User: Fold this.
Amino acid sequence: MSLLDGVPSVREIVAFAQALSLPAAALTDSNALYGAMEFASECRQAGIASILGAELTLARGLAIVLLAQNMMGSESKRGLPQPSEVQAFRQANKLSDLAGALNCGEPTLADIFDQLARPGRDPRDDAPPPLLRSDVLKLEDLKTGMRLKGTVRNVVDFGAFVDIGVKHDGLLHKSKLPRGTTLSVGDVIGVTVLAIDLERERISLGLAENPN
Assistant:
């Protein structure tokens, strides 16, 4: 199941699997791993196996679903090149030539090489941490109208997820962004808390010009 396919929450995915007495449940989202940690935790508490994966968008509108083989990730013996081999290959070939042969952009190809050279790295870890307020430590501390600063952790078709220092990232929907605004992972922005759903653990954000 995917959170982008209208499924309300990770908790409801697991509850649905329990209701059907399934031995396992899988979470596969579009080009990302939304809610992976929460999903694994909920499955563990429910006593069912969790399967994580992602649906990757390919050229010409095609897509492929990839499932994690095990918790070792890139350390599993699946034929991935060693980091030293990746570095040697990159140094021996011109990036522009490789990008042309693969029909992809140079920045995209450079990111792929970086990931292969540093397996398991989450590029969002390089982003600056959120600027925390001492009075905002958990979801229950948030109040509608509160202005905060946060760090963009993920950018998707429908907006951006922003880390504001609590357990769950808030969603800044694209409808709340001025026309022409472009956000990137790592951007530090001012946001306003528009709505808080404690039951579903969701935070709706707007853009703020002068956060506290």
Observations:
- The beta strands are 24-30, 49-57, 63-67, 147-156, 159-163, 170-173, 188-197, 202-207.
- The chain is about 25% helix and 25% strand.
- The chain has three domains: 1-73, 81-118, 139-207.
- Confidence is low (pLDDT under 50) at residues 72-79.
